[in-house]
């Protein structure tokens, strides 16, 4: 767990954000590990991949004039891509359950936590560039401000990769909870802001019947679940119980520029932490990252 947050943006961040936000639909493929239910199989885990939507970088919510949620002060930013999911979908449990020491019980999966390995692949066709982001993912839910071990671990890891900006710049350490309170910055407010950034019909999907459950099983009316609902209330108890923000903490970023077919280029950016001295041939250390140009 990092103790010194980064003092400068990652060397790949500006290009990555520019490329992804230029996409007509900022989708990407997320891969996780799924526990194999077949105990006789030689493979304890199986790969899973699905299409997700990029929701901005953690702590810097995209501007949206239609978002009715209160915003955090703009005092932190990060190099951490985010997406949202329904906790009832398998990827939330996979992210939490495949982490070192991760639990697989219902309370573990439905709570804030994570640390499982992921890889996200973004194809930015407008710039002819493929981005492969490898690292761990952390699932933030309604209990993000609580004191459960999962929430404490998640916030500890993310704090280690957030940095101060603007008027808050000048100190590398965030100061933990005291620093956040001093700046008026709230984890739960950031999660609610991500929920508010969605349209009412998209918020309503978190009131759908449980994803992947058999259609033949009736949905009791008292649950309030059903397709096609519009959710205006940002604290809707059913939708918010299912809504999650997932934050990817990159350890490697593989950038392949294919915009010039005759001169393709490729770089591998590896997170090294503070005070690292490069030992890689051609390696260049910028902040906490080492970049090596590779043959494509």
UniProtKB/TrEMBL annotation:
Pfam families: Pyridox_oxase_2. InterPro entries: Pyridox_Oxase_Alr4036_FMN-bd, Split_barrel_FMN-bd. Residues 10-140 form the Pyridoxamine 5'-phosphate oxidase Alr4036 family FMN-binding domain. Gene3D superfamilies: Electron Transport, Fmn-binding Protein, Chain A. Residues 164-185 are annotated as: Disordered. GO terms for molecular function: FMN binding. PANTHER family: AGL049CP, PYRIDOXAMINE 5'-PHOSPHATE OXIDASE ALR4036 FAMILY FMN-BINDING DOMAIN-CONTAINING PROTEIN. This is Pyridoxamine 5'-phosphate oxidase-domain-containing protein.
């Amino acid at each position: 767990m990092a103790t010194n947050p980064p003092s400068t943006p990652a060397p790949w961040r500006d290009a990555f954000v520019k490329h992804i936000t230029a996409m007509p639909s900022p989708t990407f493929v997320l891969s996780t590990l799924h526990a194999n239910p077949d105990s006789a199989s030689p493979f304890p885990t199986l790969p899973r991949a699905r299409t997700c939507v990029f929701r901005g970088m953690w702590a810097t919510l995209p501007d949206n004039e239609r978002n009715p949620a209160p915003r955090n002060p703009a005092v932190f930013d990060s190099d951490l891509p985010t997406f949202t999911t329904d906790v009832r979908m398998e990827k939330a449990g996979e992210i939490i359950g495949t982490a070192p020491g991760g639990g697989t019980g219902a309370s573990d999966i439905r709570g804030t936590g994570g640390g499982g390995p992921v890889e996200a692949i973004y194809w930015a066709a407008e710039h002819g560039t493929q981005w492969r982001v490898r690292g761990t993912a952390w699932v933030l839910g309604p209990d993000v401000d609580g004191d459960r071990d999962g929430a404490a671990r998640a916030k500890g890891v993310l704090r280690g990769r957030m940095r101060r900006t603007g008027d808050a710049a000048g100190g590398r350490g965030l100061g933990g909870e005291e620093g956040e309170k001093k700046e008026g910055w709230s984890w739960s407010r950031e999660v609610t802001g991500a929920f508010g950034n969605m349209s009412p019909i998209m918020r309503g999907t978190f009131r759908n019947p449980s994803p992947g459950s058999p259609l033949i099983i009736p949905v009791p009316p008292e649950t309030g679940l059903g397709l096609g609902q519009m959710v205006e209330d940002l604290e809707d108890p059913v939708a918010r119980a299912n809504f999650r923000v997932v934050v990817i903490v990159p350890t490697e970023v593989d950038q392949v520029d294919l915009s010039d077919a005759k001169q393709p280029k490729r770089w591998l950016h590896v997170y090294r932490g503070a005070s690292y001295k490069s030992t890689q041939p051609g390696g260049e250390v910028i902040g906490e990252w080492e970049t090596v140009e590779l043959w494509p």
